[in-house]
Every structure is written in C-alpha cells, then in structure tokens.
Specification:
The chain is an alpha/beta fold. It has one domain: TIM Barrel. Helix content is about 40%, strand content about 15%. It has nine helices and eight strands. The protein is globular and about 40 Å long. It starts with a strand and ends with a helix. The relative contact order is 0.15.
C-alpha cells in the first residue's frame, strides 16, 4: 500500500526566512522516526530553494510548491515554471487551490494548462477541488494514462481556514464519488484539519491523506497530526 500523504501548505507565511527555517527545522526534527507517512512541505517560493538545499540528503521530508506557471521559460514576468520547481528539489505542486481561484481569478482553463505542464515536467500534482464538475473541467484533454501522478484534494470552501471542518460523513460521500471517477488516484481531505479530527478523515472516511493549512504553521500541532495518522 502507498504511504499516507500529509501536505503542509504554509500559504503566504511566515514573513521572514529565519522564521521559515525555524518552523522547517522543528518539523524535520519531529518526523525523524516517522517512516510510514510521506510528509510534504509547501512553503512560499522564496523559501523553497533554501529549505530544500538545507534538507538535501535527508529522506524524511518532501517539498511542494503552492502553484506553478504553464510555460517552462520565457517572457512571463513574475511566473515560476515547473522546470524551475523540479530544479529546486520540488516533487509536488498544489494546483487550483480555492484561494488562487478566488483572489488570482484562476479559471479551469488556466488550471488545466498548469496541470498539463506540471505533469509533463514530472511533478506530482495535488489538484484542489470543491465540486465534482471541476474534475472534468480541470482535467480536460488529459489522458487517463497521464494521470498516474495526480492526487486530488477535496477541499470544501466553507471549511478552509474557518475552524469549521466538513462533517466526516459528508466528506466520505465526496471521497467515494471522486473515487468512482478517478479509481487509482489518491484523494486527500483539506479544511480545518487538526490533531483531534485528522484521524477520522483517514479511518472513517477513507482518505489517503490530508492537506493542512493553518495547523501546518504550528509545529506542535502539525507533528501531532502526523503522529496520530502514523498509528494507522
Ligand atoms: C488549505 O488551505 O488548503 C487548508 C486546508 O487550510 P486550513 O487547514 O487552514 O483549513
């Protein structure tokens, strides 16, 4: 069986490299003995290469990015390409997070282009969705055999950053619907996960991992989640 996956999405935090290093080192130290969970840290772009370099040769943690562009290079001011992410040591990329859909006005077409580029570059894509229709739109014209590196994160918007997690039964229904469409792809739950509720989404609802925002900024809480899940 594949390892359960825990993704820490730091979003636009913390505000200094010194604080990012401190947070990263606490997590790195805390997961040393955890072997049965794949823990992925997704810091802001500016910290990514520094943290990835400091973890070189350390097998315990993986890196992901919170977004990427759909071209590898060129005149696209401000963009970061999948090729650049690969080069910094990234293995994963989050695409289509609801905050990007809302604040950056990312459309399903843009997300579709990003997914195609990221998969082509060899990154593992964590596609965030709230509605089932987004699966069809965001994966348009991508063949099933190209989707082996796709992970879906079911993230109901009402639960993201609100402290109001989705009821486990409702999440389980969504997990099953997604599983019927994409049979082999891991499905994660995200939305106000904490150390008290984390295990329910794995044990009771059958998710293969978690996408964690706010709690990933608190090393004690994040490590408690990882340790609880590792008992499965
Ligand atoms: C997220 O941003 O993907 C997320 C799940 O955030 P939080 O855990 O804070 O709800």
């Amino acid at each position: 069986m594949n390892k359960l996956l825990i993704i820490g999405n730091w979003k636009c935090n913390p505000t200094t490299l010194a604080k990012a290093k401190q947070l990263f080192n606490s997590v790195k130290k805390g997961i040393k003995k955890i072997k049965n969970i794949e823990v992925v840290i997704c810091p802001p772009f500016v910290y990514l290469s520094v943290l990835a370099a400091s973890a070189k040769g350390y097998g315990g943690l993986r890196f992901g990015s919170q977004d990427c562009f759909w071209e590898d290079k060129g005149s696209f001011t401000g963009e970061i390409s999948p090729a650049m992410l690969k080069d910094t040591g990234c293995e994963y990329v989050i695409i289509g997070h609801s905050e990007r859909r809302k604040y950056q006005k990312e459309t399903d077409e843009m997300i579709n282009n990003k997914i195609k580029a990221a998969l082509k570059a060899g990154l593992k894509v964590i596609l965030c969705i709230e509605k089932i229709i987004q699966i069809k739109k965001d994966l348009k014209n991508i063949k099933k055999e190209q989707l082996k590196n796709l992970i879906i994160a079911y993230e109901p918007i009402f639960a993201i950053g609100t402290g109001k997690p989705c009821a486990v039964e409702k999440a389980k229904k969504m997990r099953n619907v997604i599983g019927n469409i994409l049979k082999i792809n891991p499905v994660l739950y995200g939305g106000s996960v904490n150390s008290q509720n984390a295990n329910d989404y794995i044990e009771k609802a059958g998710f293969q991992g978690l996408l964690i925002g706010s709690a990933s900024l608190n090393p004690k809480e994040f490590l408690a989640i990882v340790k609880n899940i590792s008992k499965n």
